[in-house]
User: Fold this.
Amino acid sequence: MEALPASEAKLISSRRLETRAEGIDAPGRIGLPQPEMVGENTVLVVEDDEASGAFARAVLEESGYRVVLASSGSEGLAAFRREQPRCVLLDARMPFVDGYETCCQLRAIGEGAEVPIIFMTGERSVDSFDRAFACGADDFLTKPVSPNDLIDRVHAGMALWRVRASRDHSLVKGQRDQLVRHQLQQERLNLLLVHDLKAPLNAISLLAQGMLRGKDLSGPNREMLEEIWQQARSMAGMVLDLLDVGKAREGRLMAHLETVDLREMVEQLVLGFQALSHSRGVELQSSVFIHNIEADKKLLKRLLANLIDNALEHAPRGSTIQIVASPRPGSAEIRVADAGAGIPAQLRDRVFEAFSQDAGAGGDHRGLGLTFCRLAADAHGGRIWIEDGAPGCVMCVAIPLGGVD
Assistant:
């Protein structure tokens, strides 16, 4: 399991407050048994990564569970015989005895036939799913795992202990497994289709650029061709965002650090958006007070491009978008400010969610651009947030000067 960014890790300490505010005393929920109702509330976590194991322990102990850690499959089998846990979290990838073999051996132990086993893997694929359930898994979590998902699945595992004897259990489990497998197949198909869109979109963009270099285009035709070029570029950006969001869900979106000239990058972006900003009657201004930083050049450039494109969507005609990069203690802070309608405080976290609908910032807005920005900031060990521009909106990004934490 992979540790989460600080913004999500805060959920751990606030979990009990949230559940109590809903009238539910953690670690139980309405419809789910309290651990003490089913006896020992021990959860065995078999995870070879020390930091990931510590993360799981912190999350589950905060919710009232007793956690036993094992760093290998053989240690996990010994701990299971010794501790008799009521739920097992099992990492799929481990040296020597991997999670799949460990699961098979657990099921061969007398008490292991009924204990709920939840697999954790960074591979979000049908093959991984099939392999886990062929070994006898009851549930399947994809890394990186959020605190909420982890707690919910363990709660459900504890509830599963009570319904093992139910005649309907096998039928319900089979139906659930079919649905999850279908979802994974659909996700894989969607990513393949999105990947195949890159080539025709790039061709449209290149052909439009070639035609724009000609001198025999009339004014209206040139304007229409410029719009085709801009829309093709925009769609190509959406395709890349979709692919990278998919990578992030599988734990494969990582920042490959190099020295980046931030001033040059911002100047290139402003130049690249010049035609679009002029067509919308918006001016772009930049002030960069920091030179070289350690970052993933491609991820950072797309992050900033998405923020500028988002600002152009909401900036009113005749206004100015300010792009400012300044040094801060331990980080470089980049701010993209527009003079649009702004985003209400209660919606500022939601706009970074996939396919969010932001009715408070210039109308109905859905997409993955800002979701990608959050994922790219996380990949750098940084963060992204929104401030009030009074008027307008300020998108703020902090990138650690020392690279990924």
Q: What stands out?
A: The first strand starts at residue 42 and ends at 46.
